[in-house]
Specification:
Helix 1 runs antiparallel to helix 2. With 63 residues, the protein is an all-alpha fold.
């Protein structure tokens, strides 16, 4: 069980890093830097759907 919690902490940290990177990308795009604007919304949607699924999975606690 402890291994699962450690894994979730690791996953959460990597999501935060990805989120921060996307935020920086979006800010750069708003400042007029030519970036692929299609990337950020789809990645954000992907992240939120994964986080929601993970929260649902965390509730059943069968390992």
């Amino acid at each position: 069980m402890h291994r699962v919690e450690a894994y979730l902490v690791q996953v959460r940290q990597s999501y935060i890093k990805i989120y921060l990177r996307i935020t920086v990308l979006e800010r750069s795009a708003r400042d007029g830097v030519n970036l692929n604007n299609q990337l950020a919304p789809s990645v954000m949607w992907f992240m939120t759907s994964i986080i929601q699924k993970r929260e649902i999975k965390m509730c059943d606690g069968d390992e």
